[in-house]
Amino acid sequence: MTRKLAVFNMKGGVGKSTTAYNLSVGLAKFHEKRVLLIDIDPQGNSGAALGVPIWELDTQLKHALQRQAPIEKACLTTSHNVDVVPSNILLAEEEIPISGFPGRELLLRKALDPVVDQYDFIIIDCPPNIGVFSINALMASDEVIIPVDMSYLGLLGIKAIERALTLVREALDHPVKIKGVLATRFDRRNNLSKEVLKSLREHFGSQMFSTIIPEAVKLREAPSHGQSIFDYDSNGAGAKAYRQLVEELIR
Ligand SMILES: Nc1ncnc2c1ncn2[C@@H]1O[C@H](COP(=O)(O)OP(=O)(O)OP(=O)(O)O)[C@@H](O)[C@H]1O
Ligand SMILES: [Mg+2]
What we know:
Elements: E1 3-7, H1 16-31, E2 35-39, H2 45-49, H3 61-65, H4 71-74, E3 76-77, E4 82-85, H5 89-93, H6 95-99, H7 107-112, E5 121-125, H8 132-139, E6 143-149, H9 152-156, H10 158-170, E7 177-186, H11 191-204, E8 208-214, H12 217-221, H13 229-232, H14 237-250
Parallel strand pairs: 1-5, 1-6, 2-4, 2-5, 6-7, 7-8
Antiparallel strand pairs: 3-4
Helix pairs in contact: 1-14
The structure holds adenosine-5'-triphosphate (ATP) and magnesium ion.
């Protein structure tokens, strides 16, 4: 069975893309999993982080969503053994037309149908909002990973995330599950990090991943080399944490 996971949080800069692409590479690298990474964020970050030249795409996710091309045509195999369906800002220009399509919430799920069986994991990197692209990601997924950064505003955003998931479950009748809430950008020298982590654990209990992603400069640098953290800084704290997340997800 293919596991389909959206990496979702409406707050920006919490580590969605960092998590989506490193997790994808880790699953392929350490467990030989067949992984498809879908970048449904017009910022194009997770594709770019894997070295995809996102400004030179003939076919990209927007063509598959608009049924102008099969998703295979937009799919690139990277040197990381991860297949990627990238996007760029041109996807943003299609948001209004796509929002008017009949069955607009199911465009990604339908586009993926013909290729789902070719993969063990499909990881979807969401944009920082709850527009038509995030809804498509949630409707195409069975599980969600919610990265939350260690800030007051990060904590405040939890209600909005829960509301969005309720909307998908109740109004759209799709039983998407929280696979785990992931504490990101944790700085142990900082009291706020500890307080936010404590509040998250009180609120989510066993829904929290045990893995904690530290604030690490190497995680920030790796994308500019088109590398995952496992290649860029294989012994560092960022690589250790994302490796642990891979193991937690596989278990
Ligand atoms: N644990 C971390 N330590 C240090 N830097 C990080 C960490 N996680 C992410 N970053 C950096 O912070 C920035 C935002 O991260 P990322 O792009 O993964 O967040 P995002 O949630 O996908 O953002 P957006 O909502 O804009 O899509 C990037 O420059 C990234 O390299
Ligand atoms: Mg992102």
